[in-house]
# Entry
Amino acid sequence: MCGRFTLRIDGELISIEWGWTKRLPTHPRFNIAPTQPVWAVRFENGEAKPVELRWGLIPSWAKDPAIGNRMINARAETLVEKPAFRQAFVQRRCLVLADGFYEWQGKGKGPKQPFWFSRADGGLLTFAGLWERWISPDGEPVETCTIITTKANETLRPVHERMPAIIASADRPVWLDCTNPVPVVTPMLAPAPDDLLVATPVSAAVNSPSNDGPGLIEEATPDEAPSPDLRLL
DNA sequence: CCAGACGTTGTT
DNA sequence: GTCTGG
DNA sequence: CCAGACGTTGTT
DNA sequence: GTCTGG
# Structure
C-alpha cells in the first residue's frame, strides 16, 4: 500500500516540468502522513492545475469526516465496483505529487524495517489518485484525495505486496482528462516497470509522523543496513 | 418498500 | 449518491 | 502507514 | 482490541 511518502523536489523544478508559470510553493517534506495536505494535479477547464488536497478521501455522503482517516488508499482492482470510489474514478481523477514513498517490511517477530522507494534518477513521481469534495455541516467544502494501489512489482515484492499506481509521464494528461473513459485509463494502473524504483533502508524514526527531516532517508550505516529480505517471501 | 452500509491493510 | 439486504 | 488514546463525575 | 489522529 502507500501510507507515507516524500516530496523534497524544489517547487521551481516541479513547475518547470508541468509548464506552470508560478513556482509551486512547496517546502521539502520527508514524512507526509494521512490527513495532511498533499500537492496534487487535476484538470480544470482542460488544463493541469496544482491543488492542495487533504489526504484521506471523505465521500460526499459521509456524515462523519473521520471516515477519511482510513480511506487513504483505493484498490485499483475494485475501483469500478466500490460505491465510495466509482464515481470519482470516472469524474474526479488526479495525480498526487511525490518523489518517494515508504513501505514497511513485516518481520516474524521484532520491529518492522521501513524502506524508502524512489526513482533511480531522483525524478518526480505521480501517483494515480481520486479526489472528492465534502461539505461540512457548516457548509464549508473540504477537498480530499486517495492514492490508488496496485500489485507490487519485482522491486517492491520482497518488502510488500502492494504499491502505489504510478502514472508514466506520457500518460499524465490522459489520466487527468476525465473525458477519457475508464477503459482507456485502467491499463495505466499496472505495476510500475521493475527498473523505475530503487529501495533504500531507512531509520525507524520514520515511523512517527512527527519526525520530518533529511535524516530520515540518509543511508543506514553498513553494518545495520538490511536489504529487502527475500526469505520473508 | 425502507434501512443501512459504503474502505484498506495485515494478521489470524 | 448508490447499492445491498431484509 | 504508525502512534497513541481509549472514561465519568464532580470539584477547583 | 479497536478507533482516532497525523
